[in-house]
Write a structure and sequence with these properties.
The complex is a heterodimer. In chain A, 42% of the residues lie in helices and 13% in strands. By secondary structure, chain A is α/β, with parallel strands linked by helices. Classes of the chains: A alpha/beta, B alpha+beta.
Chain lengths: 395, 195
């Protein structure tokens, strides 16, 4: 059977050259980077190289990179660590309404600890309302966090406009760049941010490793107290093989990025254009132009995402959905709801995220597989029969 | 491991008795697209037995499999027997359902019972009232309640928050199910909370 993986927003496969780079650190180079002997030196060199590779990918300095255990940890670290370090100046945090749960729930935790949080709304494309954001900033605002791009609808946020405001007002600005770092150009100086999160498994690196970049001079309180690893900002013996893998993936991404984008964009555009035309009653979610290169997201009317996902899986196609049924919490995607999409339509959420190995043939296969699957489920759907009756079988 | 049993997958892939009955003797509708699941059951009654059962379902794999199983269990049964079919029987016949799906998707028995009630009401000349767009499901005494946000079982319902995810909870004024204190829409029944 044909196998088409279109769930790269969940995780990407590991590049062979990344695996190769990691292997020695699962073998002879097993030392603890904090040790002073040869064994320690070998492991430390691996981490030093990775730090340079990651710093180069985002235009930062090596001493500004803190390795973490995931994008989620980076986001927790940024929100909690920056807020704690700045609390004498104020206790107000501003985030967008479409942040990842790791930002949203970290902010919620800070709320329980006496901080105040304001969520800034987005427009129908998932674009943060910059004017509202500016209005939300108060005298006691100490931190703004807006993601670089949303992994669910692909919309790229206007960070440069936001950083103009945060600089003017002297507020720290963090961005969750998990969906963009290694995928599209990310330059911390051009973006004007003070802290930035990224994760290895979003650009062909290993899982269980991420990084937080914190601009020199910006204070952050550690989440993990321990030894002096990562400059004392993140205790615990480093996950050396994963960090080395992250570094290698960053190096390859920096070189391959332009090619990858050039290959993915037309494939994405085909999906965004042809899928709604072939299936009918399909809404494209996210921004039509300012979106991630491999990212196509939709809401299919009258049917539910999980059942679509399962039937596509039977055809060897892997996708995601933001429907209530697919989430363990049985809650429709807060991103789609924040964009003003009805709960009913949000149930039909379908997310196709391309990777560097997808081909035109894959797109053909998906475009052929989708219509009969949607038709089967619609034939079963009481919402569809209601719609047909109300429209007397019309389009 | 896949989240669904082989029997669930079989009924999901090959749902039995899908469709509508023209001129049905009873119709029952439960659920709400806000929760993600909605089922409409149609029945035909002959000599106090269910001569035919059909349904239309909007929802996840579990919801479709549940509808299919309920229709299979119900056809040929007397009305009294069919009223005995409950969510636990359906789940057992399906070789189990993931626990987060028990509340939201296992609604087929209710839809069937409503269709039967609709038939009985019509027969006794009562106005048919069994189609309501918003419907909460009953809370079984032996069944525990799960947090609508993290799906962990709510061990102590007297606490104002979920012990697992710390979401502050209150009861939905419509269906009585737990929902976030600052929530604007009940995850269970879709009721919009004002203010």
């Amino acid at each position: 059977m044909e196998k088409v993986y279109l769930d790269n927003a969940s995780t990407t496969p590991l590049l062979p050259e990344v695996r190769e780079a990691m292997l020695p650190f699962l073998g002879d180079l097993f030392g603890n980077p904090s040790s002073l002997h040869d064994w320690g030196d070998g492991a430390r060199e691996g981490i030093d190289t990775a730090r340079e590779q990651v710093a180069r990918l985002i235009g930062g300095n090596t001493e500004e990179i803190i390795f973490t255990g995931s994008g989620t940890e980076s986001n927790n670290f940024a929100i909690k660590g920056l807020a704690m370090a700045r609390q004498s100046a104020g206790k107000h945090i501003v985030i967008s309404a479409i942040e990842h749960f790791s930002v949203m729930n970290s902010a919620r935790t800070m709320e329980k600890m006496g901080f105040e949080v304001t969520q800034v709304p987005v427009d129908k494309y998932g674009m943060v309302d910059v004017a509202e954001l500016e209005k939300a900033i108060r005298k006691d605002t100490i931190l703004v966090s807006v993601m670089h791009a949303n992994g669910e609808v692909g919309t790229i946020e206007p960070l440069q406009e936001i950083s103009k405001i945060t600089k003017e007002k002297g507020v720290a600005f963090h961005t969750d760049a998990v969906a963009t770092a290694g995928t599209i150009p990310v330059d911390v100086k051009a973006l004007g941010v003070d802290a930035l999160s990224l994760a290895g498994n979003q650009f062909y690196g290993p899982k269980g490793v991420g990084a937080l970049w914190v601009r020199k001079g910006v204070r952050i309180m550690p989440l993990l107290d321990g030894g002096i690893q990562e400059g004392g900002r993140r205790g615990g013996t480093e996950n050396v093989p994963a960090i080395v893998g992250l570094g290698k993936a960053a190096e390859v991404a920096a070189v391959d990025m332009t090619n990858r984008i050039a290959r993915l964009t037309p494939l994405r555009d085909r999906l965004v254009k042809e899928l709604p035309a072939k299936v009918g009653h399909v809404v494209v979610t996210g921004h039509p132009l300012n979106r991630l290169p491999g990212h196509a997201s939709f809401c299919v009317e009258f049917i539910e995402g999980e059942s679509m996902l399962m039937l596509l899986n039977m055809k060897g196609i892997a996708v995601s959905s933001g429907s209530a049924c697919t989430s363990k919490a049985l809650k429709a995607s807060h991103v789609l709801i924040a964009m003003g999409i009805s709960h009913e339509l949000a149930q039909g959420s379908l997310l196709l995220t391309l990777g560097k190995d997808n081909t035109q043939k894959d797109i053909d296969y998906v475009l052929d597989a989708m219509p009969p699957i949607v038709e089967t489920l619609r034939q079963m759907s009481p919402l569809y029969s209601k719609f047909l009756k109300e429209n007397k079988g019309g389009k | 491991m896949p989240i669904y049993s082989d029997t669930v997958m079989d009924h999901f892939m090959h749902p039995r008795n899908v469709g509508e009955i023209e001129d049905p003797d009873g119709v029952g509708e439960v659920g709400n697209p806000v929760c993600g699941d909605m089922m409409t059951f149609y029945i035909k009654v002959k000599d106090n037995r269910l001569a035919d059962v059909k349904y239309k379902t909007f929802g996840c794999g579990a919801a479709i499999a549940v509808s299919s199983m309920v229709s299979e269990l119900a056809i040929g049964k007397t009305l009294d027997e069919a009223m005995q079919i409950n969510a636990a029987t359906v789940a057992k016949e399906l070789q189990g359902l993931p626990k987060q799906k028990m509340h939201c998707s296992n609604l087929g028995d209710e839809a069937l019972h409503k269709a039967i009630q609709n038939y009985l009401d019509k027969k006794s000349g009562k106005p048919a009232t069994t189609q309501s767009p918003i419907e909460g499901h009953e809370h079984d005494a032996e069944e525990h309640c799960n947090c609508p946000y993290c799906d962990e079982e709510i061990a102590d319902e007297s606490l104002p928050y979920c012990q697992a995810c710390k979401t502050e909870l209150t009861s939905c004024p419509e269906c009585g199910k737990p929902m976030a204190k600052d929530g604007k829409t009940c995850q269970n029944c879709g009721t919009k909370i004002k203010g």
